[in-house]
Each structure stands twice: as structure tokens, then as C-alpha cells.
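Reopening this one. Same input as before:
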Amino acid sequence: MAERERYIPGVPCWVDISEPDPQAALDFYGGLFGWEFEEAMPEGSDTNYFLARIRGGEVAAIGSVPEGAPPVPAWNTYIAVARADDAAAAAEAAGGTVLMAPFDVLDAGRMAVLADPEGVAFCVWEAGNTVGATIVNEHGAVNFNTLATRDLDRARDFYGALFGWKTLSLPFGLVWTLPGYGDHLEELMPGVRAQMEQMGAPDGFIDVVAAVEAISDHDAETTAHWSVTFGVDDAGAIAAKAEALGAEVLSGPIDAPWTRNTVIRDPQGATFVASQFVAENSELTN
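Same output, byte for byte:
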């Protein structure tokens, strides 16, 4: 399930980050995940946008902070859509906000930056020559995107109207599903449904496209946000390597259903989750 050639609408497809010091970020993430980089911006550009690759396949990007934007780095989630203009209009109709109107990214595709009714920013991506990440669900590549929300009912209404998502409660938490996504995966990778069943995956898991968690009313500090999880072979080793590279381990590694996770803050302040698949944790519950 590691390689992707296309995404159907409603599936997270890309992540990137804007860092105050992009070169330092390349050193950190390259050292942590073994990413190799290529500058995507034209020569002489005032900004940087480095594509990160594993085995030649694109997994993420690191760019410079846009002029006038606050120097607060955070990982951005992109969700595939058929038409960015239609998605922007639908987001406004559902109570969201268009933070950046749809625009072309050379011949790579067309995108828009939107916010849900809580003000949580995310991007939509209409693929041109670039579909998004071509490698996922392996060490150093994205394997989950999670929305943390204080208003779950409102989030259900908004993302359901925009992407057709539904929520499903599984033993390890609440997730977003896209009806029919499992059929798409089976078409791409014949036999994947049977493989999931043999592994003991819960009913409905094959339709999962993202996760969602409710922020506790007792948690006054956490704001609603999208977060990114990268797959790793060894969460403990990654936590130790991250610290050696100047990052801060905020929590973990902690065992959870099917996984062992650690939350890391990179040297410039952006947080992400590193998650190791642990089959023997399948019986754990949150």
C-alpha cells in the first residue's frame, strides 16, 4: 500500500510545511527520515519549496514562510478534489472560509487554502501533473492525518458536506471514512481487502481516510487543528534520533491500539506524530 499514482476526491493526498529556516529543516528531516530533496522553485526565486523523496517518490515538501505570514511552522494537510474552485464554493456554503482563493501551481495542479467553521486551515488539491504523495504508509512517509476539534457535530456537518466523509467509531478511536474508498483501494491493489481481514482490521477500516479526535473541555490550551502522522519502523529509535537532531519529544513512545506513537516538536517548533505499526497491540483499546 506504499505507492500511489492517483487519489480520488476526498482523500488526503499531500503534506507540506513552511519553516523560517528551510535549510535547517532539510537537515533535520533528512537526518530523521532519510529524505532526499529537490528545489521545485525556479532559479532566482525569492522563496524555496523543496520536494522530499524516498526512493525517488515524493512524500512531502518543505518551503520558506511566505512573505507577510507569521513565522509559525506547522504541517499542512492537502485533500484531493475534482475541482478546487468547486471545493472553495462548497466550503463557504457549508460555513467555512476561503483563506486563499483557488490558484494554479504552474502545471502541477490547482489549489486553495480553506478553513472549517472552527477556523482550522487545510488545503485542497486539484491534480494536474502532480497527484500528491507517490509514497505513503511506510517509514518516513505519511500514514495518517488527524483533525482535532472542539465541535464534533459541526465538523461532521462541514466535512460531510464538503467531502462526503462520515465518522466511524473503532476500537482505537473515531475516524473519517469515505464510502467507496475501499473499492478504490481494491481496484488499485487487488486482494487488499482480504489482507486487511486476515490482519484483523475492524469492519469499515478499509474506507478510512483520516482520523478525528475531540478536544477535551478541560484542555484550555489546545486549539482545533489538523495534524500529520509519519510512519516509522521504530518509534523509540526515531524519538532518540529526533532529540539528537535538536528536536523535543513531547510524549511517548506510547503503546496504542495497533501502534506505538511518539509526538515530536521539530527544532523550529512544528509538531508531528511518528507511528510504528505494532501488530501485538491489536487488542489494546483507547
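So the earlier flakiness isn't reproducible anymore. For the record, The radius of gyration is 18 Å.
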